[in-house]
From TrEMBL:
Keyword Repeat carried by entry: no
Naturally occurring in which organism (per UniProt): Winogradskya consettensis
Record membrane topology: Multi-pass membrane protein
Cofactor: FAD
Record-linked CDD domains: FNR_like_3
GO cellular component terms, semicolon-separated: membrane
Protein name, as recorded: Oxidoreductase
A molecular function GO annotation: oxidoreductase activity
Cited Gene3D superfamilies: Nucleotide-binding domain of ferredoxin-NADP reductase (FNR) module, Translation factors
Record-linked InterPro entries: FAD-bd_FR_type (IPR017927), Fe3_Rdtase_TM_dom (IPR013130), FNR_nucleotide-bd (IPR039261), MRET (IPR050415), Riboflavin_synthase-like_b-brl (IPR017938)
TM region(s), chain numbering: 12-32, 44-63, 83-104, 124-144, 156-174, 186-205
Location of the protein in the cell: Membrane
Domain FAD-binding FR-type: 211-311
């Protein structure tokens, strides 16, 4: 018997947003109690305080706190984490410029900046932290991310924690709010403690405890399609693992060098308390290694994460749209959702027939539950379209209405590459499907 996972309370997202907004208001109120004489100095200090607050919010957003993760989902949190990070970085630059201008008092800005680094306690460490954050920001730009492997990007992104740590001494030793205001000092220490403890508890201790409790190991590996393999895993007390069909874990396989780099893979079958299954497309170093894992290989897990689950299902007809390896969470949902006989449609997009996986399972679902399979095979119809060439005479929205009649009454679940799912979402919007009925989760990094 799998554990019952209670629905996510609607007020959780509002409470998290209110807490983030309140933190900025508190910072502003504490700053207003000690404005100082120079407006440039005061404005620069406010920019620094907002930057530090947003940086800590950014850390908390991706600390995998269950309440926050379940309220927003990892794709939404990743976007807000990115926006918050860029805002924090720009405020940091504003702080550096205004503080230097204020202290220079008409003199050389370069000389004043050098004086900051050489003469003020903690400033050299703060400079190191700024360099670390610049590295993170540069590698977060979409153009740069496309040139990096996931494993390299993930490793570089950890420098954000170094940036936060190196900035703290400067704030403690020279920050007016730490030195002159006991209330502000208590607030900032509390905020840093919250961010640090969130990372330690939910990114380290919780995954370690769950790994030790369930002791997952590789049972066997099955090729599914060209470049696609399924990994079956067994472990202890899996019936107590609070996971839903459609969710994903971050997996670290203890098979040798490179095991520390985690990769997010969705479950491709419904959790049944006896085993778990993930299906992996061989792309980067981490995913390519999976095909060669030996039975008995131990696994570190972090999760489960994701909101692409039955919790969003309203009942009634449902259409699944999968592209490539995006079939994995949707197949799990096809097994799990309580739709009626003949109420489910699976639209499965692939470039070649050899890339289509799980035909035996899909045929069983078609025979037993009336799932209607619509394969879309071949090169795309045109740039920016989600359709294959055989539907080139249709617009994206027209094809959606043809392939899934009465689509406006359906719940839509989408999974695939971001450009493809963006095209499907746009087509669904044009076809009149309410946005509340369209469910997707980004797995891109």
């Amino acid at each position: 018997m799998l554990p019952r996972v209670n629905p996510t309370p609607r007020w959780w997202s509002g409470a998290a947003g209110l807490a983030a907004t309140s933190s900025l208001l508190v910072v502003t109120a504490l700053w207003a109690t000690n404005l100082g004489d120079s407006w440039t100095g005061a404005a620069g200090r406010l920019a620094a305080l907002w930057s530090a607050d947003l940086l800590l919010i950014q850390v908390v957003l991706m600390a995998r706190i269950p309440m926050i993760e379940r309220a927003f989902g990892q794709d939404t949190l990743a976007r807000r984490h990115r926006w918050t990070g860029f805002a924090s970085f720009h405020l940091l630059l504003i702080h550096i410029v205004l503080a230097t201008y204020s202290y220079a008092a008409g003199g050389s800005l370069f000389a004043q900046f050098a004086s900051f680094i050489a003469d003020y306690p903690g400033m050299l460490l703060a400079l190191g932290g700024t360099v670390a954050l610049i590295l993170v920001v540069i590698t977060s730009v979409r153009t740069a991310r496309r040139r990096l492997r996931y494993e390299s990007w993930h490793l570089l992104h950890l420098y954000a924690y170094l940036g936060v740590a190196l900035a703290l001494p400067h704030q403690i030793w020279t920050g007016t709010d730490f030195i002159a205001n006991p209330l502000a000092r208590a607030y900032w220490w509390s905020l840093y403690a919250l961010a640090a403890s969130s990372v330690v508890v939910f990114r380290v201790l919780r995954p370690l405890w769950r790994t030790l409790r369930h002791r997952l190991v590789v049972d066997h590996i099955v090729p599914e399609a060209h470049g696609l393999v399924s990994v079956y895993l067994r472990g202890r007390a899996l019936e107590r693992l609070p996971v839903r069909a459609g969710q994903f874990f971050v997996w670290r396989f203890l098979d040798g060098p490179g095991w520390t780099r985690g990769n997010p893979f969705s479950l491709s079958g419904p959790p049944n308390g006896n085993q778990l299954r993930i299906t992996v497309k061989q792309l980067g170093d981490g995913s390519s290694r999976v095909a060669h894992l030996s039975p008995g290989t131990s696994v570190l897990i972090e999760g489960p994460y994701g909101r692409l689950t039955a919790e969003s299902y309203r009942g009634g007809p449902v259409t699944m749209l999968a592209c490539g390896v995006g079939i994995t969470p949707l197949l799990a949902l096809l097994w799990d959702l309580p739709y009626g006989q003949g109420q489910a449609t699976l639209i499965y997009r692939a470039r070649e027939a050899s890339e289509v996986a799980f035909l035996d399972e899909i045929e069983w679902l078609a025979a037993q539950r009336g799932v209607r399979l619509v394969p879309l095979i071949g090169p795309r119809a045109r740039s920016g379209s989600w359709l294959p060439a055989e539907y080139a005479d249709y617009s994206d929205a027209e094809a959606l209405r043809v392939l899934s009649p009465d689509i406006t009454r359906h719940d839509l679940y989408l999974c695939g590459p971001d450009p493809w799912t963006d095209a499907v979402r746009s087509a669904a919007r044009t076809a009149g499907v309410p946005s509340a009925q369209v469910h997707r989760e980004r797995f891109g990094w």
